Amino acid sequence: ANAMKLEPRSSGPLSPSAAMAWFTQNIPFRFQRSPASGLCPSDPGLFRPLLEALAQEDQEEMAEPLMAFSGDLIRRSPECATAHFFQANQLYNELLRHPLDQESQWKAFRAYRAGLELVPHHPRGVEGMSQLQADAGLHRDALTLLEAAIGQHPQVPRLFRSLCYVARTSGLLELARRSMERVNQLTLGRAD
Question: Which of 67, 104, 157, 168 could form a Cys-Cys staple with 186, CB 3.0–4.6 A?
Answer without folding.
Answer: 157
